Amino acid sequence: MSGHDIADPGLCEAGVRRIGWADRSMPVLRSIRERFAAERPLEGLRVAACMHVTTETANLLRTLQAGGASVAVAASNPLSTQDDTAAALVAEYGVSVFARSGVDMETYYRHIHAALDVSPHLVVDDGCDLVNILHTERVDLLPGLLGGCEETTTGVIRLHQMAREGALRFPVVAVNDTATKRLFDNRYGTGQSTLDGIMRATNTLLAGKTVVIAGFGYCGRGVAERARGLGALVVITEIDPVKALEALLQGFRVEPMASAARQGDVFVTTTGNRDVIRAEHFEVMKDGAILANSGHFDVEVDVRALEELAVDVQRVRPQADEYVLPDGRRLVLLCEGRLVNLAAAEGHPAAVMDMSFAGQALTCAWLAGHHEALPPGVHDVPAEIDSEIARLKLRSMSAEIDVLTPDQEEYLSSWRSGS
């Protein structure tokens, strides 16, 4: 395959160094890459991906290549693209990359179409945009699709909607739903990188601030835990009574957004839904309140409503826009409402993405060998893949676990032993 659209090929050397730095913290993916190079489980297959074009993603794409695949990638978020990484992928590693930092939405979708022009056998998606276009504008490619992987909660929600309506035409594996993804990437990765992005964008002190977090899924839990660890008073908003109860029993305050909006100094959305923070909330917020999104698409904060309310907008820092309201209050929106952890920081640490992308790589190989037995729909990652990733990660961290004795195995597998 050939073809690309990147900002500057001259950034290749810097990108190679950054990719290598990330690779040092990705021992699980590195071991899988070595195995793939020997076994070639993806020999002759074309893979189209729509993902954040970062150093960690680059190491996943290198792994798929080592398995024998030809790879094309488009950016899943224009603000997260690292132009030096894109240059290195093209010039050093031979990946077809269609990604430039900061492109408009027309170019964003043109890049996705360009990645799909390779007529892929497998797709790797981050938010379901690529799968959506396959089912709406590129249906001619569907007969050649063997399967796909989805990385995000938002994407999995959309895929289940498609499956319920009978619209999903090929099997897609919900890599997001593995324990090694949800428990570590969503919780520890999102928790750390979200606050990293907020602090880089604003240089604010979180200790003593009231941080309102919308959503107490794994991402929201991670942000809440890290914010509390930095000395913030954390308020959770939720629509799920079970998650709300869990937050309450973990010591967080739980309130509706209508009341939390009056108290918050910093707001973080992590829901995967739209208009979580909207006009009636902006109207009662404190002067100087900071608004950040860590829930994938830029719909969680109603930016259009904020623009309509404001009498002036100024860029006060590189990723911070100040909206001045008629009464003089100022609300600060980070990263135009896009993912704060990728636009203002560098996304999840490589050590966390090591497990997530190991899951992507092993699932792609599994799909290549098992797609004929999978009907169209959303499928779980086989449990043995998740366990293998955890074992490899433990080994890389020099940690050991116990093994059941024969008597223990018999006890657990028999009902005759009694108590």
TrEMBL record:
NAD(+) binds at residues 152-154, 186, 215-220, 238, 273, 294-296, 341. Residues 186-347 form the S-adenosyl-L-homocysteine hydrolase NAD binding domain. Substrate binds at T54, D126, E151, K181, D185. It holds the Pfam family AdoHcyase. It catalyses: S-adenosyl-L-homocysteine + H2O = L-homocysteine + adenosine. It is found in: Cytoplasm. Its EC number is 3.13.2.1. May play a key role in the regulation of the intracellular concentration of adenosylhomocysteine. This is Adenosylhomocysteinase.
